[in-house]
């Protein structure tokens, strides 16, 4: 009795273009290539990968078909600009004008950024530390400038510092989540700073100290301290905003009572 022969298809090696696609996708996912960033010139990139320009070109075309890259005639290849910006403008506007939405975002940030700080303290590379130092110094420079304060610039610097922490976490899901929120965080930080009346010395000094403590904990690899400090920072912002809101409500209530008393007959 003859054994039945099972048909087996030939095993083919992975196409070179597949390998290039995987490499570029990984670089986009981990933040090595950022949204809007231009890829190195085709010849240079092919040499770095050790592949032919034809194989690289095929991989780029496939990534463009997926919506991850765009090509500009005479201008090279770019990571798609709007990757990680899925929050629409109406939602940003909702955040700015509704205190409940700002509260929800702060609660979410407390969990998200505490984890980012924890892993950043454990995993930050030399390049990450350089980026953290750069963004931290830029934020501290905003605090040090007392002449003609720019709340918008301060909020943007604050957001960039927190984004650099997410990048240093080397957790792709955390990073993509923070990037998704980046525009919202940037705008909300401006709103928070303005709402806290950050020109008040106490609030401003508090923010300055908290960011420095968090920066130092990450740079020194103190993961648990970094997580605790990140959470405490968000709590501080929540508390300051709550106190500010309550003060405004009391002022509005007193103003209404005064108006009524003026309208009553003596």
Explain this structure.
The chain folds into two domains: 67 residues, Arc Repressor Mutant, subunit A, CATH 1.10.10.10; 173 residues, Four Helix Bundle (Hemerythrin (Met), subunit A), CATH 1.20.120. The protein contains ten helices and two strands, in the order αααββααααααα. The chain has a two-stranded antiparallel ribbon with strand order 1-2. The protein is elongated, with a radius of gyration of 25 Å. About 4% of the residues have low confidence.
CATH class of the largest domain: Mainly Alpha
Rg to the nearest angstrom?
25 Å
Strand content: under 5%
Strand order of the largest sheet: 1-2
Examine the coordinates and then state which fold CATH places here, giving the name of the CATH topology of the largest domain.
Four Helix Bundle (Hemerythrin (Met), subunit A)
Q: Compute the number of strand runs.
A: 2
Rounded to the nearest angstrom, the distance between the terminal CA atoms is 118 Å
The proportion of residues forming helix, as a percent range, comes to over 70%
How many structural domains?
2
Estimate the global geometry from the Cα principal axes.
Answer: elongated
Summed up, the helix count is: 10
- Main sheet attributes: strand count, strand direction, barrel closure: 2 strands, antiparallel
Structural class, judged by helices and strands? mainly alpha
Q: Regions with pLDDT < 50 over 5+ consecutive residues?
A: 8-13, 87-91
SSE arrangement, N to C: HHHEEHHHHHHH
CATH architecture of the largest domain: Up-down Bundle
Overall pLDDT metric = 78
InterPro entries: GntR_C, TF_FadR/GntR_C, Tscrpt_reg_HTH_GntR, WH-like_DNA-bd_sf, WH_DNA-bd_sf
Region (Disordered): 244-266
Protein name: Pyruvate dehydrogenase complex repressor
Domain HTH gntR-type: 14-82
């Amino acid at each position: 009795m003859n054994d039945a022969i099972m048909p087996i298809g030939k095993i083919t090696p992975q196409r070179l273009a597949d390998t290039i696609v995987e490499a570029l996708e990984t670089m986009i996912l981990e933040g090595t290539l950022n949204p809007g960033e231009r890829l190195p010139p085709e010849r240079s990139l092919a040499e770095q990968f050790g592949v032919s320009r034809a194989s690289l070109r095929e991989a780029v075309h496939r990534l463009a078909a997926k919506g991850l890259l765009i090509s500009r005639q005479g201008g090279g290849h770019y990571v798609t600009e709007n990757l990680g910006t899925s929050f629409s403008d109406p939602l940003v506007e909702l955040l700015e004008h509704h205190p409940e939405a700002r509260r929800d975002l702060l609660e979410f940030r407390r969990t998200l950024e505490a984890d980012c700080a924890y892993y950043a303290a454990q995993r930050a590379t030399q390049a990450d530390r350089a980026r953290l130092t750069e963004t931290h110094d830029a934020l501290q420079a905003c605090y040090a400038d007392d002449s003609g304060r720019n709340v918008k610039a301060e909020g943007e610097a604050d957001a960039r510092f927190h984004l650099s922490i997410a990048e240093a976490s080397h957790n792709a899901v955390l990073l993509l989540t923070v990037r998704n929120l980046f525009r919202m965080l940037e705008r909300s930080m401006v709103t928070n700073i303005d709402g806290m009346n950050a020109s008040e010395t106490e609030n401003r000094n508090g923010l300055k100290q908290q960011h420095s403590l968090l920066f130092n904990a990450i740079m020194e690899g103190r993961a648990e301290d970094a997580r605790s400090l990140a959470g405490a920072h968000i709590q501080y912002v929540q508390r300051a905003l709550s106190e500010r809101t309550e003060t405004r409500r009391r002022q509005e209530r007193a103003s209404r009572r005064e108006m009524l008393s003026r309208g009553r007959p003596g």
